[in-house]
Amino acid sequence: MRRVVTAVALALCFLSATVVLAQEAPAPTDINTATLNDLMKVNGIGKKIAMRILDKRAELGGFKSMHQLKDIKGVGKKLFAKIVCAFFVPEEGRLPCEVTGKDVAGGPIVNINTAAAKELMTLPGVGKKMAEKILEHRKTAGWFKTPYDLDAIKGIGKKMLEKLLPRVEVKLNINEARAAQFEALGFTNGDAIIEARQKAGGFKTVDDFGKLPGIDQKVFEDVKFLLIVAAEVKKEEKKEEAK
């Protein structure tokens, strides 16, 4: 009898711990609908910075990219990394959460414009058939401009889309992209692009990428709207990293 009671007690403890962990990893929020209190839940954001974020959002008429937050006084590299883990811009898609690597609550972030079926199947509710539908839609309708374009696919309803939004992205950071991702967009020289990027120490602009020898200009013009470059790291931060 004591063994049974002990086992039940342990099971309850495990269940309680699981609930606590789930509460500690809430789903990311749309930065354009976030309230003052939502912003202040992020460690490092006080009332002043939260108000600056809201003021900037009002000034811009809504953030088009999370990188726009870097222009706000008080939002440095470390704080921005935390904000990216808690918020996202739907039109841009979920950016990599640098605090915990490439993963967010529930699994890795997937670029729906470059992902293969196997990668798509890591998304919630996406099995083999749904992954094939996504790939077919990408092939026939063209690149996904926003994560919301997924709702055009039969079988992806409102509830499923809500689960997918925090886990997907459509833009490709050319300073972090893999060779396979470049090739998925139509470039035939993924390895050469990576090699050129390493020699240059990263691309400063998307146009610099387009000027690389061997880049198919037609492909470049077709996918240019999907390409982004992470904001340049400040010289002072580079010096700190070199120490």
Explain this structure:
The chain has 243 residues and is mostly helical. It folds into three domains: 29-89, DNA polymerase, domain 1 (Orthogonal Bundle); 107-169, DNA polymerase, domain 1 (Orthogonal Bundle), CATH 1.10.150.320; 172-228, no CATH class. 47% of the residues lie in helices and 7% in strands. The chain has twelve helices and eight strands. The chain has a two-stranded parallel sheet with strand order 1-2. Strands 3-4 form a two-stranded antiparallel sheet. A hairpin with a 2-residue loop joins strand 3 (103-104) and strand 4. The radius of gyration is 21 Å and the shape is globular. Mean pLDDT is 81; it is low at 4-25, 99-104 and 232-243.
Layout of helices and strands, plus pairs?
Blueprint: H1 2-24, E1 29-30, H2 36-40, H3 47-60, H4 77-86, E2 87-88, E3 103-104, E4 107-108, E5 110-111, H5 117-120, H6 128-141, H7 158-164, E6 168-169, E7 172-173, H8 179-184, H9 190-200, H10 206-210, H11 217-223, E8 227-228, H12 235-242
Parallel strand pairs: 1-2, 5-6, 7-8
Antiparallel strand pairs: 3-4
Major β-sheet annotation? 2 strands, parallel
Which architecture of the largest domain does the CATH hierarchy give at level 2? Orthogonal Bundle
Looking at CATH, which topology of the largest domain would you report?
A: DNA polymerase, domain 1
Query: For this structure, what is the CATH homologous superfamily of the largest domain?
Result: Photosystem II 12 kDa extrinsic protein
Name the structural class: mainly alpha
